[in-house]
Write a structure and sequence with these properties.
2 copies of one chain form a homodimer. Chain A has about 150 residues and is an alpha+beta fold. Chain A folds into 2 domains: about 40 residues, Arc Repressor Mutant, subunit A (Orthogonal Bundle); about 80 residues, Alpha-Beta Plaits (2-Layer Sandwich). Chain A has 5 helices and 5 strands, in the order αααββαββαβ. In chain A, strands 3-4-2-5 form a 4-stranded antiparallel β-sheet. In chain A, β3 and β4 form a beta hairpin. In chain A, α1 packs across α3 and α2 packs across α3. The longest helix of chain A has 13 residues. The two termini of chain A are about 15 Å apart. The mean pLDDT of chain A is about 95. Chains A and B meet through α1, β1, β3, β4 and β5 of A and α1, β1, β3, β4 and β5 of B. The first copy, chain A, binds a DNA duplex (30 and 30 nucleotides) through α3. Chains A, B: Pfam families: AsnC_trans_reg, HTH_AsnC-type. Chains A, B: Keywords: DNA-binding, Transcription, Transcription regulation. Chains A, B: One of its GO terms (biological process) is response to amino acid. Chains A, B: This is AsnC family transcriptional regulator.
Chain lengths: ~150, ~150
DNA sequence: ACTCGTGCCGAATAGTGTGCGGCTCCGGCG
DNA sequence: CGCCGGAGCCGCACACTATTCGGCACGAGT
């Protein structure tokens, strides 16, 4: 994981579809060298994949929210089951098992406020292990797609 | 945004680096047709970009957390300033402006628990507009990289 | 029936990915 | 000090790919 690897990672985070030649030229190395590095990064698990970034509105998802959920009892089995159930739902974009007052943070993405409400009462309230939840509608968000190594 | 467009979006969310030919063959259309569709999706803003998915551990980020922040006063100026300041920090992966008890949700990614603590006391406590915060360490997470249109 | 517009296709060309042999650099060791 | 071995980078050649463009088919409107 030297300077060249970091640079490759940085570039591919920003634009995963630039040609290998362009990437190599930008970093000042030969295409073959660059290709070999990229393949090693893949093999080592540093690069886990390449994904298109899609506008949620185009998929009819105009409302996003975080739902904090408290489970009862917070046992391994309950947590795993809930996590799997949530993740399987199309409205759910991400699931986080967290420490603190709440046990879960579920990132949901739905067409409308009505759909959010339906989701909450049909998919959460209905589940016995849900001891309580609180939802935070997202007004604005900014995600980073480039992360540098720390330290 | 017909069935073919949706299929293209689905495929490119899963693997943004597959060749146009492979994509076309998988969807049963000619490569030239497929290419034209992809370009239109780009132009329409449906496809916003292509990003490599990088293992955070490889970038020396072994601890992730959500930090909920309450601001004082929650005015537009304070919110915008805080958002920009947070987003500029390398430890911050995402910033969400939310409704509810808290005003912000900051997704941070750091090398260690010590680094998280340092971040909290050096970057948050220090800021005057921060009226309070609560951090939730992420034990486990699952993100989806494929989202289908809803309804 | 005719025309126009839209979208798809297939072929041709320019450009790209990929494997491989050889080169250079550098550290270890006699 | 000279030699050896390995690692990493390079450039070339070939197969494959992206991209452009003219043409065709289909459906709507007149």
């Amino acid at each position: 994981m030297d300077e060249l690897d970091s640079a490759i990672v940085r570039e591919l985070q920003q634009d995963a579809r630039q040609t290998n030649r362009a990437l190599a030229h930008r970093l000042g190395v030969a295409p073959s060298t660059c290709l070999e590095r990229v393949r090693l990064l893949h093999r080592r698990g540093v690069i886990r994949g390449y994904h298109a970034d899609i506008d949620p509105a185009a998929l009819n998802r105009r409302v996003e929210a975080f739902v904090s959920v408290q489970l009862r009892p917070p046992s391994r089995q309950v947590i795993e089951g809930f996590k799997a159930a949530m993740f399987a739902l199309p409205q759910v974009m991400a699931v986080y098992v967290v420490a603190g007052e709440q046990d879960f943070l579920v990132h949901v993405s739905v067409p409308s406020l009505d759909a959010l409400h339906s989701f909450l009462i049909d998919r959460l309230t209905q589940r016995r292990e849900v001891a309580g939840f609180r939802s935070q509608i997202i007004y604005d968000s900014a995600r980073k797609n480039v992360a540098a190594p720390l330290e």
